[in-house]
Amino acid sequence: MTYGQLEGLINKWNLDLEDQEKYFLHQATQVNAWDRTLIENGEKITTLHGEVEKVKLDQQRLEQELDFILSQQKELEDLLTPLEEFVKDQSGSAYLQHADEEHGKTYKLAENIDAQLKRMAQDLKDIIEHLNTFGNPADPTDPLRQICKILNAHMDSLQWINQNSGGSLFVCEYILTKINLKLS
């Protein structure tokens, strides 16, 4: 082998070595990146494992508390059942007595309102008759004439309310049937 061939071989080996070195450095960089990723993920897995263990402990504690609450609820239901039956037996007569009292109060209130409406109707009727007995004064500034206009306007308003409410306002209907007079 000649010196030129040896030098060519060495140059070739140097080039191969440089290529292998570049490839090795590239592979080492990738391995380092993967290693960092593995370490970070390992830390994340360790953290997650710790959190999962905490959640498991919390779940066990909650299950124990839930069991305790369920047992208390069962005891409470057992205590309330006889009481509910006792109250049910007792409240039947008390409820009927209370309902009778309420019906009586409502009936007395209705009678009272009816009496007041009759008095109001009679008062209005008396006023209208009294005003009509004075006649129709010729002077438009006469206070009596102005009162007649106001009462006529009120009467018209009551009739309008009665008509537009579909006759559902029994008070207006009652007053209008009792008075049934028109001021002149």
UniProtKB/TrEMBL annotation:
Span of domain Nucleoporin NSP1-like C-terminal: 1-102
Keyword Transmembrane helix: no
Classification via InterPro entries: NSP1/NUP62, Nucleoporin_NSP1_C
A Pfam match: Nsp1_C
Single GO biological process annotation from the record: protein import into nucleus
Gene3D superfamilies to which the protein is assigned, alphabetical: 1.20.5.170
Principal subcellular localization: cytoplasm
Any one GO molecular function term: phospholipid binding
Keyword line: Acetylation, Coiled coil, Cytoplasm, Cytoskeleton, Disulfide bond, Glycoprotein, mRNA transport, Nuclear pore complex, Nucleus, Phosphoprotein, Protein transport, Repeat, Translocation, Transport
Coiled coil: 45-79
Keyword check for Transport: yes
Subcellular location: Cytoplasm, Cytoskeleton, Microtubule organizing center, Centrosome; Cytoplasm, Cytoskeleton, Spindle pole; Nucleus, Nuclear pore complex
GO cellular component: centrosome; nuclear membrane; nuclear pore central transport channel; spindle pole
Function: Essential component of the nuclear pore complex. The N-terminal is probably involved in nucleocytoplasmic transport. The C-terminal is involved in protein-protein interaction probably via coiled-coil formation, promotes its association with centrosomes and may function in anchorage of p62 to the pore complex. Plays a role in mitotic cell cycle progression by regulating centrosome segregation, centriole maturation and spindle orientation. It might be involved in protein recruitment to the centrosome after nuclear breakdown.
Family: Belongs to the nucleoporin NSP1/NUP62 family.
Protein name, per record: Nuclear pore glycoprotein p62
The organism of origin for this protein: Ursus americanus
